[in-house]
Amino acid sequence: MWISPNFKIYLIKEFQRLKDDENDRLKLNWNLQRTLAKLNYQIHTDAIKENLIPAEITKQQSNFVYASEADLLNVALFGMTAKEWRDTNSDKKGNIREYAIIEQLVVLSKMESINALLIQQGLPQNERFIQLNKVAVVQMKSLIENKAVKKLK
Questions:
Q1: CA dist., res. 67 & res. 140, Å (int)
Q2: Mind listing the pLDDT tens digit for each residue in 23-36?
Q3: How many angstroms separate the Cα of 131 from the Cα of each of 5, 31, 110, 114, 143?
Q4: How far, in Å, are 3, 8, 16, 17, 19 from residue 13 at the CA level?
Q5: CA 28 to the chain's CA centroid
Q6: Which tens digit of pLDDT belongs to each residue from 40-57?
Q7: Domain that holds residue 50
Q8: Selection from 65, 73, 36 nearest residue 48 by Cα
Q9: What band does 152 get if pLDDT is binned at 50, 70 and 90?
Q10: pLDDT of 80-130, one tens digit each?
């Protein structure tokens, strides 16, 4: 580099380009997992609508049921409700799921499907929470220790 200032500039620009490409891939992986989580959330909300929400309750009451089920997943995976996260992270925009790592989004997606199945089977919320928390712990441990997942990062 001391011989050619042009080479030094080229090297710096190329390094920056490679870092930008790497960041773009990471964003793509995160966005893909976030999209999958949103799709599974539809399965989850359909199960709630069909099995937990009586026809005679108000829209506000049904919103409470949906929020309660979302917080069931949040507590099982993240250890806190959406409101607790917002109170703790008042400087951040969005919600807890938007700041989740890829492994958490993968597990959340699976938990939504599992919870939909458990709802359809008629399990009460406290029993579903215990099972979902066990799933979250086992799957997070497996994904965090997985070498293939580490390569994605």
A1: 23
A2: 666 666 656 666 76
A3: 61, 27, 12, 9, 18
A4: 18, 9, 5, 6, 10
A5: 14
A6: 778 889 999 999 998 889
A7: 5-152
A8: 65
A9: low
A10: 999 999 999 999 988 898 888 888 988 998 999 999 999 999 999 999 999
User: How far is residue 128's CA from residue 9's CA, in Å, rounded to a whole number?
Assistant: 58
User: To which residue do tokens 């049921």 refer?
Assistant: 65
The rounded distance, in Å, linking the Cα atoms of 87 and 91 is 9
Query: Please, are residues 67 and 45 in contact by the beta-carbon 8 Å criterion?
Result: no
| pLDDT for res 61 | 92
Number of domains, the chain: 1
Kindly report the pTM of this predicted structure. Answer: 0.71
Closest CA relative to residue 34, chosen from 108, 131, 117, 115: 108
Q: Which of 143, 118, 146 is nearest to 132 (CA)?
A: 118
Which letter does DSSP use for residue 45 in this model? Answer: H
Name 135's Cβ contacts closer than 8 Å, sequence gap at least 6.
76, 107, 110, 111, 114
Cα(113)–Cα(117) distance, integer angstroms: 6
User: Which amino acid is present at 30?
Assistant: W
pLDDT at 25: 64
